[in-house]
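User: Structure please.
Assistant: Input sequence and predicted structure:
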Amino acid sequence: MIAGLDPTLAGAFFGSLSLIGWGTLDFLLKVLMGRVHPARVFAWMQAWGIPILALAAWRLGGGVVPPPAMAVRLAGLAVLYLIANLTLFRALAIGEVSVVTPITASWSMAAALFGAFFLGDQLSPLQWAAVLGNVLGVLLVSAGSGVRGEIAAAPDVGWARGMGWAPGAGWALAALATFALMNTFLKPVAQAVGAVETSLWMKIPTAIAALAYIYLARPRNPAGGARPVPGWWFLLIAALEAGGGVAYNLGVTVAPVGVVAPVSASSPVLTIGLAAHFLKEPLTRRQWYGIAFILISLVALSNGGA
């Protein structure tokens, strides 16, 4: 399907698919966390994702069992994946979507830079400018957001609260660092194991850990979560999360990380738009400037390798 496609365009295509999946996912997660404890949301998202990825691996004809030499690397990626998602879920639970998602999306800068310096990915000058434009855009979107009064009292990590940051920003920064580290070392593993198989084997241990936690700790749902949530909601978020991950992993197997990562990490544009329409989170003028920077950088990034 992609054999004759330019690697830069292929990377931008798969990055865009992950953008759509993850951007929609973050919005739905925020909605669900008003009714279901974040740990339960995470656990069922991971559990439903396993059969989805197993089916995808079977349909694509890949090998489900990874090579023994990759076991340690997969275990390390799984640990980083678990930490990154737990910190992201904590940030979404206490902060505005329009604050949290642009901060976490900034992992693309670190991933692109690490990919260039440690993995040998080659970026043209225009692509370097596009990466910087993308980072500037997400920072403008984050800095321009207002914070509601009832969310402002929510707890955050101590050092972030002491600096007067927006609620959830400290946890979002922790997620940024972990996602960047994970994605830096993802490419060689995905190339050796397979894009779908890598996602599957990262998800299995995290699902087991999350399900064990909710079984032992039995976290209580929020006060407003008395109404039951239909099971198809969890299936939907699992499909979006798994689909975004597979698209990203496919992208980094055919294109530089510096192309795929900034495109996929622009998902806050979609998330903030959905939140502004459905959750009535306001968009300031500075945020609109940031969205414009992100969109322009996507075009430059997709064509910068020509």
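The radius of gyration is 18 Å.
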